[in-house]
Sequence to fold (309 residues):
Amino acid sequence: MNNEKQNPHPFSTYLLIWLGLLVLTGVTVTVAGLNLGNLSVLGAILIAAVKGTLVVLFFMHIKYEDRVFKIMLGVAIITLAVIMVLTFVDTSFR
Amino acid sequence: MTVAAEPPVHLHRDATGARIGMWLFLFTEILLFGGLFLLYAVYRSQFHADFHFCAGTLDTFMGAVNTAILLTSSLTMVLAVASLEKRSRKHTALFLAATILLGLIFLVNKYFEWSAKFSHGLYPNSEVLEAHTAGENVFYSLYYLMTGLHGLHILIGIVLLAVMFFLVSGKAGRAAKTDEEELDRLHIKVENSGLYWHLVDLIWIFLFPLFYLIT
Fold:
């Protein structure tokens, strides 16, 4: 039935995720100030990826969705990754 | 619509189908911004030094504040959806209003950021920039294009959430349906608007370190 009442999400989970996101923002700003060279780029993108995953899983409810949502999202992300990698294979060796 | 006499009334509503449709749209958005991120990445590898220098001219504090504002707006958005699940119109409207307000604050901050850059003559095709290197020109073009497109999405999100606010707080159509039914309907709309809002937040999560932090 369509009337799925979805597992009622407690406010506390969302608050925790929000706090985690704010902490990670603080971490990424601090790490950027450390002058780690090339590592800082990797670190910033890694932290952004973790934050993005939290938003998608919890705020966008992907964690609680049917498998079809996860597969579709996976296909979209892989498509983007393939486009990016192939472009760099081209531009890096010109 | 025909009013069937049979007991199980067929509702023209499919929450899962609606969410799948919304996600399909969001994928096109991901690819749209993904293409721009790719453009940024390729030019960054070409104009390494210029990108480093220019990123240093952006106000990291302002960027971090805006990040916190958007993350908080995502929280209020998800709480609006959760409140609707708990059948509280009042709380939903309140959280929606908070989300809209935070979105507006984000745009105001963006306005001040852009104005500061404009006052230094740093905008695409400006005389100041023409005297600078090609890499700096590319950086500011991408900066304005990507934060501008993102800002446009915030603006569209605000309009969308304002409509949701009036639907939730208004009495439109209530006479025709039972409140329970209408709340189900509203839930689909508010939830999908929320997905859009979170996506815009998600894009900013990647924009912020790439433009403000990697110096």
Remarks:
- The longest helix of chain B spans residues 134-169.
- The two ends of chain B are 60 Å apart (CA to CA).
